[in-house]
């Protein structure tokens, strides 16, 4: 049975969706924006600062569901300026071990709240649905 997960440690959803859904041993995490879990405001700063916040939010959702960054199988990255790909990667690689998840990166014209980056993920749950 599907289980909806919403974390108190991540910004509230800005639409009709859950932070994540689990089914069996898999966790599907909605796109995370660089928003503060406290007030929902977008992180002020460059792409690196926003990427750090997105990955912190992703980590918090994973942990609230009983998973972790080490169990991420796939990420999809939406970035407004692909010319900043290397800047993004500098931050991204500090959150994952050498066994990086599979990943797609797509340049987009605009993101919600005019964010610079958004990341969604698929992760593994050792315990399945709880």
UniProtKB/TrEMBL annotation:
GO molecular function ontology, one term from the record: deaminase activity
GO CC terms: cytosol
InterPro entries for the chain: RidA, RidA_CS, RutC-like_sf, YjgF/YER057c/UK114
Gene3D superfamilies given in the database record: RutC-like (3.30.1330.40)
Record-stated family: Belongs to the RutC family.
PANTHER family from the UniProt entry: 2-IMINOBUTANOATE/2-IMINOPROPANOATE DEAMINASE RIDA, 2-IMINOBUTANOATE_2-IMINOPROPANOATE DEAMINASE
Protein name stated in the entry: Endoribonuclease L-PSP
Gene source species: Desulfotruncus arcticus DSM 17038
Lineage: Bacteria, Bacillati, Bacillota, Clostridia, Eubacteriales
């Amino acid at each position: 049975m599907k289980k909806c997960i919403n974390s108190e440690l991540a910004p509230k959803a800005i639409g009709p969706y859950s932070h994540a859904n689990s089914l069996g041993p898999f966790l599907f995490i909605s796109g995370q924006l660089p928003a503060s879990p406290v007030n929902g405001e977008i992180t002020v700063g460059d792409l690196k600062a926003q990427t750090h916040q997105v990955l912190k939010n992703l980590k918090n959702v994973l942990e609230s569901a009983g998973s972790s960054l080490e169990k991420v199988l796939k990420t999809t990255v939406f970035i407004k300026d692909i010319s900043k790909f290397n800047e993004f990667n500098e931050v991204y690689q500090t959150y994952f071990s050498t066994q990086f998840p599979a990943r797609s990166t797509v340049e987009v014209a605009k993101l919600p709240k005019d964010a610079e980056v958004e990341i969604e993920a698929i992760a593994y749950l050792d315990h399945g649905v709880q």
